[in-house]
């Protein structure tokens, strides 16, 4: 019999781990499960999901489903039925015991594991007043069930739709309303829609797009109250500026909340910003040590990125969820030098008001921006973002074919402003400040969250007591 020793014994041991549990039955969880089986894992695999549905694709929910072009149940991701796993759906994880290697479930059950992947993602941020949030006609959009209910209500032809928040989700919903020829008002506490993700210059382009398509866009405006009638249905909205507005459908698009509360007191470095991990998706404990058998992936993961000064970054992007899931699965089955790091340049896309918006890199990690191709006036351009003299991101409006080229500039730390001869040169190469608005004043969050690490940033304090624990203080 061949006896494995040293490094190869460690690899073999990882492959023979008898029990792996994945918490989160969405895109990252499914892709990780597929990668584990494809990588040779033959042990017990359990997937826990809070929703009752098998994994499904979320991008169509704010587009095709709301337009009536696709049924909500037809958004399932391919491949889930082929994964040899025990699926526990419609059940929420409520705790993690690091000492006993157990996941606690709602209702009192427990699942033991040798390795665990935490992929609990995010949920829609609710309207802060619970009574107003419960009014008939007030919606959020994150899940398949949310999309099904909202699509039915839009199909009933409401007289006036109010979208609270001008981020990507709010803007896509407003676009759907105009495609359906529904009157829609969008309120945004910042100076323009998309300003939290793309900055002031491109936010101004987004504002023009909305108004050109008939959206009643109200910037630097907040909703202060929602009124209901005697039957509990929303009928009116009040604002910080202007008269109240009669509405019969309200969509709250205030960004997302990362699902980390269930990890309180677990000893895991988790909080409102996400679950901290290394580039190999291995989770840190509250002392900054690698747990080595706990991994994370997807919207909830918060990892350092070498391209961005090793700051801890959380991404709510489809491609990031897939990439991290595959890296996490590989590293659950391997050890040492063959482990991988997730170092892809982030990318995302959005379709709204007849324009395809694509991005590579992290626009929020920038203080300057310049148009490097195309025309702002024609809504057909590439804007390049820079920080400390190098290219950090690029965003295109109907010019997505160039994004691979700009990805190369980011990866090679090319100088900003870039100097090259391009097809379709811009009308002006003037460099502009990005003009980020203080996030505290925005009604939505960016899809990328750059959260530190600077030497003078204190993010944790130790609380003395019978059993020492850490209290997290998260920067704004």
Automatic annotation (TrEMBL):
Its cofactor is FAD. The keyword Phosphoprotein does not apply. Residues 19-325 form the FAD/NAD(P)-binding domain. InterPro entries: FAD-oxidoreductase/Apoptosis (IPR050446), FAD/NAD-bd_sf (IPR036188), FAD/NAD-binding_dom (IPR023753), FAD/NAD-linked_Rdtase_dimer_sf (IPR016156), Reductase_C (IPR028202). Residues 348-419 form the Reductase C-terminal domain. Keywords: FAD, Flavoprotein, Oxidoreductase. The keyword Oxidoreductase applies. Gene3D superfamilies: 3.30.390.30, FAD/NAD(P)-binding domain. GO terms for cellular component: cytoplasm. GO terms for molecular function: oxidoreductase activity, acting on NAD(P)H. Transmembrane segments: none annotated. This is FAD-dependent oxidoreductase. It comes from Nocardia bovistercoris.
């Amino acid at each position: 019999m061949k006896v494995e020793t040293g490094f190869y014994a460690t690899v073999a041991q990882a492959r023979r781990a008898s029990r792996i549990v994945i918490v989160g039955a969405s895109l990252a969880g499914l892709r990780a499960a597929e990668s584990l089986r494809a990588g040779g894992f033959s042990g017990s695999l359990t997937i826990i999901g809070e929703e009752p549905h098998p994994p499904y694709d979320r991008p169509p929910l704010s587009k095709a489903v709301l337009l009536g072009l696709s049924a909500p149940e037809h958004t399932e991701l391919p491949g889930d039925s082929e994964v040899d796993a025990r699926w526990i759906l419609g059940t929420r994880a409520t705790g993690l015991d690091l000492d006993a290697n157990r996941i606690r479930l709602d209702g009192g059950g427990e699942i033991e594991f040798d390795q665990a992947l935490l992929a609990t993602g995010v949920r829609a941020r609710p309207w802060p007043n619970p009574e107003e949030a419960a009014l008939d006609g007030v919606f959020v959009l994150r899940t398949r069930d949310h999309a099904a209910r909202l699509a039915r209500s839009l199909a009933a032809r409401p007289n006036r739709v109010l979208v609270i928040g001008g981020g990507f989700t709010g803007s896509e919903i407003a676009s759907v309303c105009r495609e359906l020829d529904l009157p829609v008002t969008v309120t945004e506490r910042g100076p323009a829609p998309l300003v939290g993700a793309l900055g002031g210059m491109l936010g101004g382009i987004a504002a023009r797009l909305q108004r050109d398509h008939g959206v009643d866009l109200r910037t630097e405006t907040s909703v202060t109250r929602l009124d209901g009638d005697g039957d509990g249905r929303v009928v009116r909205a009040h604002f910080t500026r202007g008269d109240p507005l009669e509405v019969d459908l309200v969509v709250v698009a205030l960004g997302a909340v990362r699902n980390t509360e269930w990890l309180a007191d677990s000893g895991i470095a988790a909080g409102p910003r996400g679950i901290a991990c290394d580039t190999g998706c291995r989770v840190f404990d509250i002392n900054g040590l690698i747990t080595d058998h706990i991994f994370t992936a997807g919207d909830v993961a918060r990892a350092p990125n070498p391209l961005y000064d090793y700051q801890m970054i959380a991404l709510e992007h489809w491609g990031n969820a897939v990439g991290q899931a595959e890296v996490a699965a590989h590293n659950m089955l391997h050890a040492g030098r063959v482990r991988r790091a997730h170092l892809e340049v982030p990318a995302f896309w959005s379709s709204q008001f007849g324009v395809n918006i694509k991005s590579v890199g992290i626009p929020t990690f920038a203080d300057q921006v310049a148009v490097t191709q195309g025309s702002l006036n024609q809504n057909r351009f590439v804007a390049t973002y820079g920080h400390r003299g190098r290219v950090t991101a690029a965003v295109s409006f109907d010019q997505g074919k160039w994004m691979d080229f700009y990805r190369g500039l980011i990866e090679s730390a090319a100088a900003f402003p870039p100097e090259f001869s391009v097809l379709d040169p811009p009308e002006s190469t003037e460099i502009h400040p990005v003009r980020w608005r203080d996030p505290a004043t925005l009604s939505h969050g960016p899809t990328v969250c750059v959260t530190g690490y600077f030497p003078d940033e204190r993010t944790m304090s130790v609380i003395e007591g019978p059993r020492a624990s850490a209290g997290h203080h998260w920067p704004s």
